[in-house]
Please model this.
Amino acid sequence: MADAAGSAAPGASAARDAVTRPPRYVEAVARALHDELAADDDVVVIGVDVGAAGGAYGATRGLYERFGPERVLDTPIAEAGVLGAAVGAAMAGLRPVVEIMYMDFLTVCLDPIVNQAAKLPYMTAGGVAMPIVFRTQTGGGRSSGAQHSQSLEAMLAHVPGLKVFLPGDARDAYDLLRAAVRDDGPVVVVENRRLYNRRADDFDRRAPLPPGRARVVRAGSAATVVAWGRMVDEVGRALDGDERLASAGVELIDLRTLVPLDLDTVAASVLKTGRALIVHEAVADFGPGAELAARIDERLRFDVEGPIRRLGARRAPVPYSPALEAEVLPGAPRIAEAIRALLES
Amino acid sequence: MSAPRAEDVVAMARIRAFERQVSRAFKDGRIPGFVHVSIGQEAVAAGVCGALERRDMITTTHRGHGHCLAKGADAGAMMAELFGRADGTCGGKGGSMHIADTSVGVLGANGIVGAGLPLAVGAALAARLRGSGAVAVAFAGEGTVHGGSFHEALGLAALWEVPVLFVIENNRFAEFTDSDAIWRGAPLLERARGYGLAAAERIDGNDVAVVRAAAVEAVAALRAGGGPRLLEAMTYRHHGHYEGDPAAYRDEAETAAWLERDPLEIARRALAADGRADVVDAALAAAEAEMDAAVAAALAAPEPALASALEHVDG
Model:
């Protein structure tokens, strides 16, 4: 770890932190990449500013110095060509981890993801392997504007062949990224930049969970709230911010991965509580919450007490003004309101 | 005019016979979907792939049957794939536009114009980083060169100094559009050199001896670490863009002139000068018999098991 993120961190106190405190989310990403690069010569990291610069948010800090320009490749700002080359490299034996700096930029390079990586293993009946990871990050709420803030995981999960991982804390950022690199199919890992500085206090105590396993973050029997990414934390803030809610017995589930989907854990919880709310940063309309609500309904139609509810961003591009952005994105106050309504249903 | 190698004539004859069978079977309604044949362009596939080794890799286009055959994909399995059968190269899940066989270095035909170019750059990057000694070839049409993937692929190839050869088959038409009519600015070779490629050359794409010589030189340079290169092979497709396209956009006199320059006829004339004109006929006769058998086998092959529709979805 000290090699990956600690040694390049500025100042002696940061270096001390790296050995005495659990890693920040962004350091966990760098550590996972470091450990995979060290474990397997076929792993390469490719992307804009991932090399000498250490990544736009420091997620690849120290890797270039340790592994050199042949394993950590800086590229021009040419996402479609870069991702296409990464797909070809995966077909020819490498295990590329290619970065798309902001999730919004996926839209300029969808062909290599959707038409190539996701479809080629299928179209060749398994004739080509596709061990490729598309690393990207999102994170509305900091006035980054509509082209640097969108959550597009529904679009990705809709494409057969793509796996979609959305780590909600540093432990999962490490475990899910390593699992993604080990996967022989294409995986999109969606980080959240607003979590990058957070540490998971239980980093060293928590056993790694594989993809496709949701995690019960808080146990309860009154209602089920399902979230992922930063919304797990935001739901926690909503619960903690209201004494009545904090003691109401709300079970909070971090889904961790949309594909594969751990419906069993969600269904077991909803069977117990009879109430379900899905919270995500993506726009609610045609969003992942709709799919989850339908799946829960299909399985538990006669065991759910009220309608399955979902809370996502309002139907607008993410606005710039802090006031407007707070109006559009789901935050703790709206989440608390939704949970109160859920409990009263 | 130098005489072609017999093996290149055989490769061209096999492509011609394969494509004729495909054209007939499509017309008869026995092949579903979309089919694009490469009749008239056989010399490019035969000459370039003739210069490659099994470990080398290619990406190709919607018009890729010839490249796949010349690179060593099994004709019977390819035919079965076109018929959508279980014995096909891809179990009937790919079809004409998606034939692939990585065991012989065919990373795949591709239904997206331009998509194969960056793929080949990445394959060449893998070859260089893994020290395999292999090279990659990206086949693409001249209709591809306006799109972003062409420009990004050339730029990355030059930047990473990877052993990739871009082979642009200029068959005069981008689907139904005269390629000259949609061109402004610097010619292709100048554009390619502008990205820092080591060499860019226009060649007669209908003379397989010329194509072979240019490809041998390019591949040797790539293996010596010489950086990416481009060949523009001038050729002509005898059929329309897809099977069934009446190709009303073509000039009859131009078509007639190109038919005179049929790559198999050019080979025949060159060989006749050496008193070996029979090489072409013998190759065509053998290829016709082989492809007749391939069609018969494809027709006899089983339909895919329905359960396979949901297999290989997640890698």
The beta strands of chain B are 57-59, 136-141, 164-170, 173-174, 177-178, 199-204, 229-234. Residues 6-298 of chain B form a domain with the Rossmann fold fold (CATH 3.40.50.970). Chain B has a mean pLDDT of 96.
